[in-house]
Write a structure and sequence with these properties.
- The chain has 2 helices and 4 strands, in the order βββαβα.
- By secondary structure, the protein is of the alpha+beta class.
């Protein structure tokens, strides 16, 4: 199981859940919301009963937050 993310705060954050089956890519789930922080999306993926192989994150995951000085990626790795 894999996820592919598109981050947004003014627009939506979208997460696609997919898996490989032979040579096929199967999209099995999707979640989309706006106005929420990363904590919300972590809770969403943890609440699903999927076993994840990898999360594909966009380039802006490396943006540092002013409040902490940490990147969004660092935050996700800590939870």
């Amino acid at each position: 199981m894999f996820t592919h993310w598109d981050l947004g705060i003014n627009d939506t954050t979208a997460i696609w859940f997919w898996q490989l089956h032979g040579k096929e890519v199967r999209l099995i789930d999707h979640y989309e919301m706006s106005g929420e922080g990363l904590e919300h999306y972590v809770r969403i993926i943890k609440d699903k009963e999927y076993k994840y192989d990898r999360h594909f994150l966009p380039h802006d995951i490396e943006v540092r937050e002013l409040q902490t000085g940490n990147t969004r990626k660092q935050f996700l790795e800590s939870v």
